[in-house]
Write a structure and sequence with these properties.
Layout: E1 2-6, H1 10-22, E2 26-30, H2 33-42, E3 47-51, H3 59-68, E4 75-79, H4 84-92, E5 97-100, H5 105-119, E6 127-130, E7 133-136, E8 141-144, E9 147-149, H6 153-164, H7 172-180, H8 190-202, E10 211-214, E11 218-221
Parallel strand pairs: 1-2, 1-3, 3-4, 4-5
Antiparallel strand pairs: 6-7, 7-8, 8-9, 10-11
Length: 225
């Protein structure tokens, strides 16, 4: 599942993003409203967490701009303001839920999951497909040629990130940032290790290998040899 976090407070942004990544989500971040709007329009997100008090473009204006462009991504508003009027303003701007700071990560996660469930209640389960590999983003499960693949949460997040970028080479730095959520250490082999394990589960018993290593550049999922 792909989540956008728009928050200018670095500690809060990292708190949210780290927790979501530990739960297996793919997270993008923006620290101002303008960048948040551009990200929201450039990618397809399952949900967004947007703070009200943002530089360059405040959160309510950001949400209104998204809705004006017919972007229906479910939005959880963050705010230090707890009055009924503030909540009403947030919902009228196009927000789907409202969470007051300070908050627990468990509550934020539960609210996000509820937003996604409501948004997909009348739709088919959200899936990503490459060749005969299928990811069910709601159940967080994977199959290949109809055969179930047992994945740990981090493995699923890594595979989801690769599939979302199918045909595009992603570097180790990009993977560390998006899947692990911390700065890349050139000396670590955690990416190579997880890719190897993922390849063993996804490609080993099939004639067509999907996960490919591009020497000196990174990794890519593609059907072509």
């Amino acid at each position: 599942m792909h989540i956008l976090v728009v928050e200018d407070d670095k500690k809060i942004a990292e708190f949210i993003s780290r927790g979501l990544r530990q739960e297996g989500y793919v997270v993008d971040q923006a620290d101002n409203g303008v960048d948040g709007f551009h990200r929201a329009m450039a990618e397809q997100y399952d949900a967004a967490v947007i703070d009200v008090m943002l530089p360059r473009l405040n959160g309510l204006d950001l949400i209104q701009d998204m809705r004006r462009e017919e972007n229906l991504t479910p939005v959880l508003i963050l705010s230090a303001r707890n009055s009924v009027d503030d909540r009403i303003k947030g919902l009228k701007a196009g927000g789907d839920d409202y969470l007051v700071k300070p908050f627990s990560f468990a509550e934020l996660l539960a609210r996000l999951q509820a937003l996604v469930r409501r948004a997909t209640a009348v739709a088919e389960p959200t899936t990503l497909v490459v060749h005969d590999l299928c990811l069910d983003l709601q159940r967080r499960s994977a199959t290949r040629a109809g055969r179930s693949i047992e994945l740990q949460p981090r493995e699923f997040a890594l595979l989801e990130y690769l599939v979302r970028n199918r045909g595009r080479i992603v570097s180790k730095t990009m993977i560390m940032d998006q899947v692990w959520g911390y700065d890349f250490d050139p000396s670590t082999n955690v990416v190579e290790s997880r890719i190897s394990r993922l390849r063993d589960k996804v490609d080993r018993d099939f004639d067509c290998a999907l996960i490919k290593t591009i020497r000196g550049a990174g990794y890519v999922i593609q059907v072509e040899p």
